[in-house]
Amino acid sequence: MVSHTHHGASESFWVSSALMFATFLYVRASLGVRSQNHGKLVGWRAGSFLLGVLSIWIATASPVAPLDHELLTAHMVQHLLLMTLAPPLILLGMPRKPLAHRWLLRLARLVTHPALCWFAAAGTLVVWHIPSVFMLGLRSQMWHGTEQASFLAAGLLFWSPVVRRSPSNRKWPESSILLYLFLATLPCDILSGFLVFCDRVVYPVFLSSPRSFGLSALEDQQCAGALMWTCVTIVYFIAGAVFTARLLSPHQSSNRSEELAIPQFDSRPIAVPRTNTHRREAV
Question: Is 155 within 8 Å of 222 (Cβ atoms)?
Fold first, then answer.
């Protein structure tokens, strides 16, 4: 198994540099949006994006990132940061601009289709936790980076129908997002339940790892499964609760109607009483 001590410094440097460059581009674009909006900039969007970038850095380039080779719990923390927490934060922070080119619009409709997004996230989760594939990510630095990148990409795909109303899912009712989130918990529950209740160590490589924090390999596996079970349930429940509250809200702002492409149902013309112009002038 390749140790992080040989490649960790260079990998952390390049990942940190890429994240800093992405943050620079975001700040530059945000300043342009601010100038176009006469100095107005939504601060929470910038904060959300920066928190998402920070989550990626913690998972991939921070001093605690190499612990994923010693603890399955640390690996699960990386998985949760890259797939469950960072993607919605980044998507919430991105500026909302309509796609100008028709081919970009078609590509967005294809890539952000809810079914494709769901299967991409579920498939990435299941495949990378197959013991043989899991070991491949531990033994090869290249495959380890591929694993982390696929977690982030699958997370961005999964959260795109939830966070923003893409052209491909406008024909779907908004309430279908609740079913989408519920179905997404099933693969996570099955995997986490298997890790928690299995009476043997699924990934034998951790049997020879240093016993950090006083956990045995089986206890580490149970802790990782419980962490995944709890965090995914809480995050998806919060997302579902926010979405439900927005659906049940009697007041729909014009921004929400424009963003989600929801037609205004109360569009009947309002009869305005005519006033006598001459009489008003006389008064």
Answer: no
Summarised one tens digit per residue, pLDDT across range 9-26 is 777 888 889 999 988 888
Torsion from C-alpha of 217, 146, 238, 196, nearest 10 degrees: -20
pLDDT at 107 over 60: yes
Provide mean pLDDT across the span 234-262. Answer: 68
Q: Are 97 and 236 in contact (CB under 8 A)?
A: no
pLDDT (mean) for 175-198: 91
Decide if pLDDT at 260 tops 60.
no
Asked whether the predicted pLDDT for residue 234 surpasses 60, the reply is: yes
Separation of alpha carbons 220 and 171, rounded Å: 44
Count CB neighbours of 59 within 10 A. 26
Distance CA 99, CA 108 (A): 9
- The neighbour count for residue 151, using CB atoms within 10 Å, is 25
In 3-state terms the chain splits into helix, strand, coil percentages (rounded to 5) of 75, 0, 25
Q: Is 58 within 8 Å of 45 (Cβ atoms)?
A: no
Amino acid identity for residue 269 in this structure: P
Strands annotated E in the chain: none
Question: What pLDDT was estimated at residue 255?
Answer: 44
The Cα 175–Cα 85 span in angstroms is 22
